[in-house]
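Input record (one chain):
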Amino acid sequence: MLTFFPSESWIVVLDEIALPLPGEEITPVAGEVLLASVRSPVDSPVVHTLAEFERASFPPGDRGVPRPENAPALAFRVSDVPPEPGETVGDYVRRLLSGESLRSLPAVFAAVVFDESGGERPELIRYFPHGILRLLDVGCGPGEASGAIRRKRTQVSVTGIERDPSAAALARTDLERVIEGDAREALRGLAAAGERFDAFLFADVLEHLEDPIAALALAHELALPKATLVVSVPNVGHLSLVRDLVQGRFDPLPSGLLDAGHLRWFTRNSLEEVLDEAGWHTLSIERLPGSPPPDEGEFLRWASGFPEADRDALTTYQWVAVAQPR
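The corresponding structure, as predicted from the sequence alone:
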């Protein structure tokens, strides 16, 4: 059981996908509970790894007055608001958030909330030919990408697969059908029902699967001749990850290249091998550079000393593959 001692000051991170900004000296104000304001991972400077996050110098932003229900973190002195006998940590934090001391206090510190929304992903959906009629979006999230296709091409029927209940609920507002649950089980169910599709989207999904080859092979069973498969994966050979490894670092983050939920890692070649083993013929693999990491030029100059260094791979954030069934 966690114990709070009266002499201590605490920072409690309320959001599991948030990190307080590094280097900030946070001193709780006597008798008050301080709330952190929210910063986005796309705010300057853009960082891709924990090591870059720790070294970054974040300019001050408009911190305003955060609301208790939105605050990613809080800071307090235990002596100001002592725990009650038998109170759990959760109950204690809820009491801190409901106190009068929270009202109308400007934020004195901030936390980055690593919640990268997929968005409509025009860089992916542009690869689907205009004649498609049935799209299967595996790991559709809230349905923004495939929903954008449906709005622009009204003849397209979209089925989504999503394991997160809250994201699936949002997707149902845009897509004709959303299957909630494990991707492989949902794919098996669709195959058993004899369903067929002429378009498949795996946007930032394969890296989260225990067996991405099996999922792609099941999609292959569902594919009509000449169906189009579009896949995007993060690049494990990105400069930020390579630099961390050279320094002996490999730290998970709540999202991005080093998302703690990643189970598999891909280079350009390994992505093509996975597609091939699952029965797909790769038509193209394109690179998405993403936002450049801090001090990119310095590391690239150092890497140029290695004749086999792949500059394109080092500056690629994601690989996007387009394939058809063999």
